[in-house]
């Protein structure tokens, strides 16, 4: 089985999760940062995994553009979707809003891998918002290795 992981990251958490996931999936696995790498032809892959960070309820615009442009090709593949977000309430709703219910309903696995606040990587306005909403000014990392392992186990089942 060949698997393509396409991810969009802003501060590195989604990239970190994608690399961890890549190491857990069997077979040939290619991980692509959509912002700075060329996407290979998806027809050559059995599994397509799409992941993105969530900011103010939205996924990375490059990820959204990718799945809209390639929706018909994606319908023919085994799809996995994940988000990285600190707000772990209503994950199903967040995934449906992020990827659209039509794509989300086709996915064989959907998960939130947790998230992180890294103040050194944030711009002034982002820091301001996080301080107000999350009521913290400290770096926090809440990545769920258990969720990543569960996701990989489902992808690895043929």
What does this structure look like?
It comes from Clostridium cavendishii DSM 21758. Residues 3-158 form the Flavodoxin-like domain. This is Menaquinone-dependent protoporphyrinogen oxidase. InterPro entries: Flavodoxin/NO_synth, Flavodoxin_dom, Flavoprotein-like_sf, Protoporphyrinogen_IX_DH. One of its GO terms (molecular function) is oxidoreductase activity, acting on NAD(P)H. The relative contact order is 0.18. By secondary structure, the chain is an alpha/beta fold. The strands form 2 sheets. Strands 1, 2, 3, 4, 5 and 6 form a 6-stranded mixed beta sheet that branches. The chain has helices spanning 13-24, 61-69, 71-74, 91-99, 101-106, 124-134, 145-156, and strands spanning 2-8, 28-33, 47-55, 58-59, 78-84, 109-112, 114-117, 140-143. The chain has 7 helices and 8 strands, in the order E-H-E-E-E-H-H-E-H-H-E-E-H-E-H. The chain has a single domain, classed as 3-Layer(aba) Sandwich (Rossmann fold), CATH 3.40.50.360. Helix content is 40%, strand content 27%. Strand 1, helix 1 (13-24) and strand 2 (28-33) form a beta-alpha-beta unit.
């Amino acid at each position: 089985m060949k698997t393509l992981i396409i991810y969009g990251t802003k501060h590195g958490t989604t990239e970190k999760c994608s690399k961890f996931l890549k190491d857990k999936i069997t077979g040939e696995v290619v991980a692509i940062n959509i912002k700075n790498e060329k996407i290979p032809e998806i027809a050559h892959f059995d599994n397509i995994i799409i992941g993105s960070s969530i900011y103010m309820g939205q996924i990375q615009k490059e990820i959204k553009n990718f799945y809209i442009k390639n929706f018909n090709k994606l319908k023919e593949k085994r799809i996995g979707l994940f988000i990285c977000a600190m707000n772990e309430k209503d994950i199903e709703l967040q995934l449906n809003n992020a990827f659209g219910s039509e794509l989300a309903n086709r996915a064989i696995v959907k998960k939130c891998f947790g998230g992180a606040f890294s103040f050194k990587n944030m711009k002034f306005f982002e820091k301001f918002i996080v301080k107000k909403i999350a009521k913290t000014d400290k770096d926090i990392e809440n990545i769920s290795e258990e969720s990543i392992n569960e996701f990989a186990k489902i992808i690895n089942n043929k």
